Amino acid sequence: MAKVVSIIPARGGSKGISNKNIKPLAGKPLLAYTIEASINSGVVDRTIVSTDSEEIAEVSRKYGAEVIMRPAKLATDSAQSEPVLLHVVEELEKQGYVPDIVVFLQCTSPLRGQQPIKEAVEKVLKNGFDSVITAHKTFDYFGKKSGEEYIPFRKERKLRQDMEPWYRDNGAVYVLKREILLREKNRYGGKIGIVLMSEEDSLEIDTSFDFWLIEQIMKRRKGRGES
Question: Which CATH number fits domain 4-136+167-223: 3.40.50.2300, 3.40.50.1360, 3.90.550.10, 1.10.443.10?
Fold first, then answer.
């Protein structure tokens, strides 16, 4: 039986929103939504929050997660997520627990729910993928700026029904085999699968406006009796 661990990075500092990870969102700390989604997915054996904050650790345990405290060097504004994932895996191995599958969840995606986690883990376990990401379909037009010039990536404008969609990595769920994490030191690699989510469920919290918007969506869903 494969051992599946989810890792939720949640450091104490936040430039954009003060105490963002435990800021109340529609009645619960932001972090709680991701912890509950992991636990309720039914495919994760251990849900672990990596943090440098005792306050976040306390909230994490309250909602059912385990906690691994991270060193200060992994809690700076410039710290990347991959070293945090590797640190947790190393700490688990010291305990004699060697996971087969690592699920990386960011608590800035509170609308994700449990289903995409379940689907992504099952694709790695059953469909031959080395890693799986979640994404949403987009027909948007993108380009790059070169000096004062705009260079479009789509060379012609078409009716939506005639366009080939692109798929935007939404940051909500990453599932990968342990050996991929150790080898690539990246959140995905090898043969990469995809689980589609709606654009609304893919919304992330980076700003105060994002926080307000997602709270309105949650209130609307609650009013309609949606989960």
Answer: 3.90.550.10
